[in-house]
Amino acid sequence: MTGSCTTAKPTRIGVLAYQGDVREHMATLEAIGVEAVRANKAEHLEGLAGLIIPGGESTTMGKLLTVFGLDEEIRARHRQGMAVFGTCAGLILMAKRIENSEQARLGLMDITAARNAFGRQIQSFETDIDAPAIGPEPMRGVFIRAPYISDVGEGVEVLARFNDRIVLARQGRLLAAAFHPELIGETRLHRYFVDIAASAP
After folding, report:
1. Do the domain assignments include residue 55?
2. pLDDT at residue 167 above 80?
3. 182 catalytic per annotation
4. 113-141: burial string, b at 16+ Cβ within 10 Å, e else
5. Active-site residue (options: 5, 88, 186, 190)
6. Is 5 a domain residue?
7. Which domain covers residue 92, as residue numbers?
8. pLDDT at 10
9. What are the two backbone dihedrals, phi and then psi, of residue 136, each rounded to the nearest 5 degrees?
10. By the 8 A CB rule, do 51 and 15 touch?
11. Of 19, 33, 53, 150, which is most buried, counting CB atoms within 10 Å of its CB?
12. Is 18's pLDDT higher than 60?
């Protein structure tokens, strides 16, 4: 699904570019008329309204964030109003708590993440997700070694479940999805995030 972005003011959105489906996220942003920026250094965050943390290997990404000091920079930028959207591994990195893991993380969102909760990569699948806050029609999502959210704190809004497991949630200017909409041309979740990022903090 494509089209022009309905957000009124210009918005620059970064995509964390250490690994994962960076190009797909950037292409989705560009398809809805948003300037997409590859971000892997602190200076790349300057002037961004939002940052997308893509899928990948969360342990490796967490270590790289720490090594390059981007973890603290992202936290600081978020405190100043930058919105953050994590998909799959991005969800894990955004969580304050990760089941059975002390791995490096951003810890921005008051959620508990369960890793690889839908099985191994060979068990990946594609399905429709009902998320009324995003739109009346189901979204298509791809689950690849996907996590889910096993617990949420106060102030976290559950936006979608799959098989009774939380797979999409929002907390203020934070958005976390267990699945990949960007791999199949689904743009509505990105539009939703851009609207969050473009709104006043």
Report:
1. yes
2. yes
3. yes
4. bbbebbeeeeeeeeeebebeebeeeebbb
5. 88
6. no
7. 12-198
8. 56
9. -70, -30
10. yes
11. 53
12. yes
105 assigned to some structural domain: yes
- pLDDT range class, residue 2, cuts 50, 70, 90: very low
Active site residue 88: yes
Residue 104: strand, helix, or coil: coil
More confident residue, 105 or 1: 105
Query: Is 5 considered catalytic here?
Result: no
Q: Which two tokens stand for residue 169?
A: 């949630």
Instruction: Please measure the distance between the N-terminal and C-terminal CA atoms of the chain and give it in whole angstroms.
Output: 28
d(CA 78, CA 16): 14
Q: Which two tokens stand for residue 37?
A: 């920026």
| 154-164: average pLDDT | 95
Active-site option among 25, 44, 78, 180: 180
Q: What is the pTM of this model?
A: 0.91
CB neighbour list of residue 16: distance below 8 Å, 6 or more residues apart: 22, 39, 40, 51, 52, 53, 54, 61, 70, 90
Instruction: For residues 109-134, give the mean pLDDT.
Output: 83
Asked whether residue 132 is assigned to any structural domain, the reply reads yes
Domain count, the chain: 1
Q: At which residue do the structure tokens 């950037």 appear?
A: 26
Identify whether the C-beta of residue 166 lies closer than 8 Å to the C-beta of residue 147: no
